[in-house]
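FIELD: query
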Amino acid sequence: MDYVGIGKRIRAQRYKLDLSQEELAEMAGISLVHMSHIETANTKLSLPVLVDLACALGVRTDDLIFDKDTLGKDELLEEMADSMPGAIFEDLKE
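FIELD: result
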């Protein structure tokens, strides 16, 4: 998982919405320190926190996880399969 890229995309969307880190952290129900660490990739974020941030920013989780401009469908599916435990996406890769 590209936590640096995720942090950059979160920050970019936050700037786009003219939100401070503190405002976004409050909206997502996390601490300001955790928010800062997510944006700088100093910590990994959990799936529930990712979902809460995406909802607060008004975007899909995919928009935060993936750089849509550089990955095609096959690359997206492969990255998803590689990052998820089990065989959730194995049928999609074939």
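FIELD: remark
The mean pLDDT is 85.
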